[in-house]
Write the structure tokens for this entry.
Amino acid sequence: MKRDTVNLEPGIDHAKPLTPVNDDQRYIGASVPRGGIERLTQGLGQYVDDIELPRMAHVVFWRSPIAHMRIKSVNADFARAMPGVLLVADGQDLAKVCKPWVATLEHLAGMKSAPQYPLALDRACWQGEPVVAVVAETRAEAEDALAYVQVDWEELPAATDMLTALDPATPLIHPELGDNLCFTRSLNVGDVDETFARAEVVAEID
């Protein structure tokens, strides 16, 4: 039988079994041990900036400055000519070698999700969405080349208010999905009105 384990530390050849959940396990007011804290406090932690591998390259992104925009053109000729640059790619380049990802969650039946590519294709649908990737031998060279990437874009209407996202006047972010609704979920917990009627005290706030 396979046993779930936690808190594995370098140099420790045994596992600490997970303890069963019970009513006495409280977090507020209790000291909760953090997994891996001994390794980190001893300065043995390894972070992304500490990693160096053979033939390792660095990537930076030109990201959408607004919530919704149409990508009209990308000019990266000057960026490609910069020292240390290995590759400059946009969404069209990666779409030739990468299939889109579609989010699905088994516990959210009927969830709708538009195909997502590593880099935006014709439109960017959220602020910060990556549009162009610059790969170079060093982080500094990648950042220097990024300054020479030119993106011509057009701002499009955005859906920024969750309360009005389903209004007919609100623009559709993904027209192929029919509306801006990702999923619907209902939670039934009994007769609310009856519970209030039987309560000894009801607190209200305006």
The longest strand covers residues 69-75. Residues 54 and 137 are 11 Å apart (CA to CA). The chain has five helices and eight strands.
